[in-house]
Write a structure and sequence with these properties.
Blueprint (H helix, E strand, L loop, with lengths): L9 H6 L4 H20 L2 H17 L1
Helix pairs in contact: 2-3
């Protein structure tokens, strides 16, 4: 469970000021897809997706 929590926090915070529109979906999508591919578990991907959606709403 703690595998998807730490990575999506620092990555967007640093890139956010550069390009909020582009960085909003570029790194998040890649990270979520990469994690899903690496883990091979749909449950993990679901959790990552929820995390990135929450961050997007915050922005």
């Amino acid at each position: 469970i703690p595998s998807y929590t730490p990575p999506p926090t620092p990555a967007p915070a640093t890139q956010m000021p550069s390009t909020p529109g582009f960085v909003r979906y570029n790194p998040y999508s890649h990270l979520a897809y990469n994690n899903y591919r690496l883990e091979g578990n749909p449950d993990t991907n679901s959790q990552v997706t929820i995390s990135l959606v929450k961050k997007n709403k915050n922005i």
